[in-house]
């Protein structure tokens, strides 16, 4: 029996939905709540979903959110940051800067740190 709340085979469904959503240029998505979507998370389990988000929206339309304090139900803050780091390690420095702050700053109209 799987312990996943979001079955890995749902990636195709998520991808189809995100493709339609991504067609709207005014859409930005928060990459958050990753570790609370499964009872026994691993980066291997989460990667297909992160990859779908990056493929359809790109780093410049995604903004990272730790989901703190809710994330503490499944992982420490450090583990969440570590997972996000691992899941985005293939991004360029400018893509990482966008995902981990630039997109949010632009979206909310605040100065980037």
Report a brief summary of the structure.
This protein is mostly helical and 113 residues long. It contains 4 helices and 2 strands; from the N terminus they run H-E-H-E-H-H. Helices cover 48% and strands 5% of the residues.
Topology:
Layout: H1 11-22, E1 29-31, H2 43-57, E2 62-64, H3 77-87, H4 93-108
Parallel strand pairs: 1-2
Please tag this protein with its features.
113 residues, mainly alpha, two-stranded parallel ribbon, 4 helices, 48% helix
Describe the overall structure:
With 113 residues, this protein is mainly alpha-helical. It is 48% helix and 5% strand. The protein has four helices and two strands. A two-stranded parallel sheet has the order 1-2. The longest helix has 16 residues, at 93-108.
Principal-axes geometry comes out as globular
First and last CA, distance: 45 Å
Give the strand order of the largest sheet, numbering strands 1, 2, ... along the chain.
1-2
Helix share bin:
40-55%
């Amino acid at each position: 029996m799987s312990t996943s709340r979001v079955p890995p085979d749902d990636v195709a469904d998520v991808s189809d939905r995100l493709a339609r959503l991504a067609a709207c240029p005014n859409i930005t998505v928060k990459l958050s709540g990753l570790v609370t979507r499964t009872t026994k998370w691993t980066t291997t389990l989460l990667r297909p979903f992160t990859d779908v988000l990056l493929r359809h929206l790109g780093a410049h339309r995604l903004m990272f959110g730790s989901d703190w304090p809710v994330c503490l139900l499944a992982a420490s803050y450090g583990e969440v940051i570590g997972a996000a780091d691992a899941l985005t390690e293939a991004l360029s420095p400018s893509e990482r800067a966008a995902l981990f702050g630039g997109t949010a700053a632009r979206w909310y109209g605040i100065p980037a740190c």
